[in-house]
Design a protein that fits this description.
The protein is of the alpha+beta class. The protein has one domain. The two termini are about 30 Å apart. The chain is elongated, with a radius of gyration of 20 Å. Helix content is about 40%, strand content about 30%.
Amino acid sequence: MTQIIEHCGIINKIYTNRIQVLIVQQTACNDCQANGVCFTTENDSKIIEVENLESGFNVGDKVILFGKKSNGLLAVLFAFVLPFILILFSLFIMNYFIANEVISGAISVGMLLPYYLILSLFNKKLKSKFKFEIRKEIEV
């Protein structure tokens, strides 16, 4: 059984073939009793684009976005784990060949540029892989 990730959001814009949904992610601080006086409370809003295959959605509608949890884990792999491994691996290689640690570190961090450029070449394929689906939120 595949696990599903769900996010509640509000439709921001509607285009002919896609919908922009605004998602506000809140930290766990909302449940804390010191929420009113604490300055660490963070709200992060993101805009997610979803293919619009059906009509019936209007700007301002509350919706639920859902997708496979395995896609989220794969996105974390591409965005964080592989770049970290690339930096670490290249740092060890550069330290072996170059005595100056600053230059080795700069080259290792510079290895991220080709990594993300190559990743951007596969942008269409990745967008088709990491799809969210949309449905209207049922109001109680």
